[in-house]
Amino acid sequence: LSKQWYQRRVRVPNLQILNPLVRVSSTTEDLSKDTIGQYSVVCITDGTHDEYSALNDLCREHGVSFLACNTWGMAGFMFRDAGANFKFIAEKSKVHKEQKGADQGATKRRKVDSTDKNDKHEEEDDEDGYEQREASFVTYRDAGEVTKLKFSSPSVLIAQGLLRGVTDIGQYCRETAEKINAKHVPEDLLQNLDGEIVPICAIVGGMASQEIIKIVSKKDPPIVNSFYYDGLSGAGIIENTRPSS
Question: pTM higher than 0.70 for the full model?
Answer without folding.
Answer: yes
